[in-house]
Amino acid sequence: MNKFICPYCYGEHDLRTTSMKCSFNIQGQSGKTCIGTVQKEPGGWIPQKDKVRCTKCTAAKKIYYCDVVKKEIPREFLEDPQGFSVALVGAKASGKSNYIGVLIQEIKRKMAPRFNCSLSLTTSEESKMYYDRMYYKPLYENGVVVDATSKGAIPPLIFPLRFWEKKGAKSTAVLTFYDTAGENLDSDGDMLINNRYIPNASGIILLLDPLQVPAVREKLQGKMPLPEQNTDTVEVLSRLVQNIRDVKNIRGKIKTPLALAFTKIDALAEFDILGEDSVLREESQHLHRGVFANPDFESVNIEIRDMLGSFIGGELEQMLKNFETYAFFGLSSLGGIPQGKIDIRPCRVLDPLLWLLAQRGYIPKAKK
Question: Is CATH 3.40.50.300 the right assignment for the domain spanning 83-366?
């Protein structure tokens, strides 16, 4: 397979035509020749007429570049040409930055040993440095919440997730996340400019802040600090749908799986909005069993759906009919309302990602 999805522009590229260099005299200037008869262009680029032949060469390493942003494509994206790109979407203050910072650690510490996989943080040095500075150090070294994402372009976080089978073979899901600023969802124009990755993503995680729901805010008024109200959840989803339809020219159902995740479930539990027997008060069975446990998933899906019905009404459900596959989740990234130095106690942070991976067959499902 010669085509792959670029983790930077989320566009589809072809190895036979995309910009490339090779490790043989990669810094060479015009007039320098590599093994064989290929004469490189200034900067060491391989001429278009020689690309097909160069892709078959076994004497040197090939380095491919995105033709849009001219950045090197990680090798793992060529092992799994379709990749597994996750679009992380949510309005301002929905908890995206804290979620993604904790999610990476949950994959390494909890998911990896249970699902026989490993997460690499070294494929993209830019991703590793950005993650360490913006997420890991604030959360896990300084004990403070992650700063809100700045509006505008940010680098993607690219982390290969390798699943090891009994015979030593492996399959790789190259996870890419964009922690786009909530303000980028405030207009259709911003959606098209800043969120071009959404239409080509393998799956979408839409984070919903329950503290933005009027009925929830009314119950919590005076009991805890509430964030300023911002873009309505249904409005965010409406723009998301229109963005995908405009870019992909889709008239029927959108096939990209959509995970709708209520964040800050800890606040609902602390102030008894969640029932005492709520399944959301406990960690999921997926990690305990090392498979995607459908009964646990269905329990959460039903509870959140009922909650949405009583808090928001049918408008969101009608909007969700645009998608062929969607599901509801509840999670807490921090495990409690931040007060002073935080003690991170995440709950169900992995559930949306595990569901998306199960949809693509990366992890097994259990019906019982």
Answer: yes
